[in-house]
Automatic annotation (TrEMBL), chain A:
ABC transporter domain location: 5-241
CDD domains, per database record: ABC_Org_Solvent_Resistant
Keywords linked to the UniProt accession: ATP-binding, Nucleotide-binding, Transport
InterPro entries assigned: AAA+_ATPase, ABC_transporter-like_ATP-bd, ABC_transporter-like_CS, P-loop_NTPase
Protein name: ABC transporter ATP-binding protein
One of the record's GO molecular function terms: ATP binding
Nucleotide-binding keyword on record: yes
Amino acid composition bias (Low complexity), ranges on this chain: 342-355
Ranges where the record places region Disordered: 280-300, 342-406
Domain of life of the source: Bacteria
Entry keyword Protein transport: no
Upper classification of the organism: Bacteria, Bacillati, Actinomycetota, Actinomycetes, Pseudonocardiales
From TrEMBL, chain B:
The protein's name: ABC transporter permease
Keywords: Membrane, Transmembrane, Transmembrane helix
GO cellular component terms attached to this protein's record: ATP-binding cassette (ABC) transporter complex
Organism: Thermocrispum agreste
GO molecular-function terms, A-Z: phospholipid transporter activity
Length: 406, 263
């Protein structure tokens, strides 16, 4: 399973110029997270700070209990073996063939025999659709192939954390989707933690489990995808729609005068860009059929359901919407529309598969349908898992009454 | 905790760069003894450096020897010590000219190539990629190159000394009408074995310097593709400056420590 990355109060500046300050976030293990932000907000710098290529001014970045920012050089090299990083252009070694590029980490770090290396490398090349190209030099192949080769090299040591810098740069929309599919497939197979830095909206809307956004030298938000995708923050809305109308300007953020002037211009009929209003939470891409289900996805649902009551109402709605009927039963969430239409038959049919059948309580005479206040012990709990932040028996009381979620 | 001081004063950048350069030099020395040693890379680089520097070094050393010989021959003749021409020219060539010529060629031909190579790798993020894969770029790339520079400069020094002395001999005998016997006989009149040692020490040190400076500039180029060009340019200039400075120090120390031969 992937490792958890805890970033606390990370601040980076070059000279007097602060790039971002006090970035705090946790990449949940095995989940796919994305970091958005306008160009020049230091997304790539953030990525490089996470692996110790750049030294942040202060803050912590903890992986498996080791703080990247303050650890010794030898510890740093050890921790880096947990990482697979896909750079923008693949960053392949120009003097080596694809095969040697992918074999490089194995030859450096393992005692594998050449036959084992060969099997491993060919498997990874196959996985990234590069079978047959292993004799080529990086200069002889297209940008998309270089990216995939970079991914193959990042995967060969079976990393626990995979960082991806702008997977879409230089790729057409179709190839971008294919490479996104590849990320999800890899995630399903090795359960690695992903962080994708991008400003591709399609990718951001359909691939990650969690989304964060950097703007004005700060992390505007970081949380489950539904939170950002349903957010009413002007900057988020502007970014998702790719319009000029909003706080993001050409170079830096706009001041209020510019904003007002532009506002007037757009109201007078000037096209603010963007095609159509992008709202709502599209369905997330899934691993290719035939692969095992993503374990991170299951953990994420547990995690999100636990923090559901802390999320904004719109996000709550979107999350509940995205649950399958079985999940709704499992977490004890009732979709009002569905419940009203076929409450009794659905509930009766599903009861057998319900993991925690509830005894008929005082509030509900139909099984699975509750009304009014339930005693706390009858409110459905999400199952125990090892990321529970609370010691057993001390979970906070979930919000009472499912109607509150609407 | 890792709060860096932001005090700025004139020359801070230069001091910082100098510090980093020394740190890289120290790292190279430290990582030289770290296993596994990159034999393959070392041999490849050594072969490459030797290939690009032998011919230019020889071509430079012939006229160099000749110039020293001609100039000295003139002066020494006026002083009436014509029989010492050989002694003086061999001393000048072995102790001063040869290590400097070696270092100039190694820095100019090989150092520039190394700096451009590493600089290009840096801006293409290959170095970052290597570091991220848990492989130290200093250990993997810099150490073999610096050691190759050092070894080649050391060996080249022998070639340049011989060719330089032969050049001096040729010009003294043919053009100035010197006596071959006197020229050869006076070889050991002033020169002594420590002169050869210091010559080799100098050459090795200069080679090391050229390698470290080239790699340092390559690893820290100014931004952009043009930055690599600038880095190459700077690496050669910095090496030359350092070279003459270090040469001055070494010579001063040597002359104090080793008494000149009298008789």
């Amino acid at each position: 399973m992937g490792a958890e990355v805890i970033v606390e109060g990370l601040t980076k500046s070059f000279g007097n110029q602060t790039i971002w300050r006090d970035v705090t976030l946790t990449l949940p293990p095995g989940e796919v997270s994305a970091l958005l932000g306008p160009s020049g907000t230091g997304k790539s710098v953030f990525l490089k700070s996470m692996i110790g290529l750049l030294k942040p001014d202060r803050g912590k970045c903890i992986i498996n209990g080791i703080d990247i920012v303050s650890c010794s050089e030898s510890e740093l090299y050890e921790v880096r073996k947990l990482f697979g990083v896909l750079f923008q252009d693949g960053a392949l070694f120009g003097s080596m063939t694809l095969y040697d590029n992918v074999a490089f980490p194995l030859r450096e770090h393992t005692k594998m025999s050449e036959t084992e290396i060969r099997r491993n490398v060919l498997e990874k090349l196959e996985m990234t659709g590069l079978a047959g190209a292993e004799k080529k030099l990086p200069g002889e192949i297209s940008g998309g192939m270089r990216k995939r080769a970079g991914l193959a090299r990042a995967l060969v040591l079976e990393p626990e954390i995979i960082l991806v810098d702008e997977p879409d740069s230089g790729l057409d929309p179709v190839r971008t989707t294919y490479i996104s599919q590849l990320f999800l497939d890899v995630n399903a197979q090795i359960d690695a933690t992903f962080l994708i830095v991008t400003h591709n909206i399609n990718l951001a809307r359909t691939v990650p489990d969690n989304i964060g956004m950097l703007f004005r030298k700060e992390l505007v938000m970081f949380g489950p995808r539904e939170v950002l995708l349903t957010s009413d923050e002007p900057v988020v809305k502007q970014f998702l729609n790719g319009r000029m109308d909003g706080p993001i300007g050409m170079s830096e953020e706009k001041d209020s005068a510019t904003l007002a002037a532009e506002r007037a211009m757009f109201e007078a009929g000037h096209h603010a860009g963007g095609v159509e209003e992008i709202t709502g939470v599209p369905k997330q891409m899934q691993p290719t059929p035939g692969l095992p289900p993503r374990k991170g996805d299951k953990r994420r649902t547990d995690r999100v359901m636990r923090m559901l009551h802390e999320l904004p109402p719109k996000a709550q709605e979107a999350i509940i919407e995205s649950l399958t009927e079985e999940q709704k039963q499992f977490y004890g969430v009732r979709s009002p529309a569905v419940a009203a239409a076929n409450a009794a038959p659905a509930a009766a049919g599903k009861q057998a598969s319900q993991p925690r059948p509830q005894p008929p309580g005082p509030g509900g005479d139909q099984p699975g349908v509750q009304r009014g206040q339930l005693p706390p012990e009858q409110v459905a709990r999400i199952p125990e898992n090892r990321w529970s932040p609370y010691p057993p028996g001390r979970e906070p009381r979930p919000p009472q009454g499912q109607g509150g979620l609407r | 905790m890792t709060q860096r001081s932001t005090v700025s004063f004139p020359g801070r950048g230069a001091l910082e760069s100098t510090g980093k350069l020394f740190a890289l030099g120290a790292d190279v020395v430290r990582l030289t003894f770290k296993r596994p040693f990159q034999v393959r890379e070392f041999i490849q680089q050594g072969w490459f450096i030797a290939g690009v520097s032998i011919l230019p070094a020889m071509l430079v050393s012939i006229p160099f020897g000749a110039v020293v010989s001609l100039q000295l021959g003139q002066v020494v003749n006026q002083l009436g010590a014509a029989s010492f021409t050989g002694a003086v020219s061999v001393l000048a060539i072995i102790q001063q000219a040869s290590p400097i010529v070696c270092a100039l060629i190694v820095a100019g031909a090989a150092g520039a190539a190394i700096c451009a190579d590493i600089g290009a790798r840096t801006i293409r993020e290959e170095i970052d990629a290597m570091e991220v894969l848990g492989v130290s770029a200093v250990h993997r790339l810099v150490v073999p190159r610096v050691l190759a520079c050092t070894l080649v400069a050391l060996l080249l020094n022998g070639v340049v000394s011989v060719v330089g002395v032969l050049g001096g001999y040729f010009f003294n005998i043919i053009l100035q009408g010197g006596t071959p016997g006197a020229y050869l006989a006076s070889f050991s009149a002033l020169a002594q074995l420590p002169d050869l040692w210091i010559s080799e020490i100098k050459a090795a040190l200069f080679g090391f310097l050229a390698g470290v400076v080239a790699c340092y500039r390559g690893l820290n180029p100014p931004p952009g593709p043009k930055g690599v060009g600038d880095a190459v340019n700077q690496s050669v200039v910095i090496t030359f400056l350092l070279l003459f400075f270090v040469n001055f120090i070494l010579t001063a120390v040597y002359l104090t420590v080793v008494p000149p031969k009298t008789g």
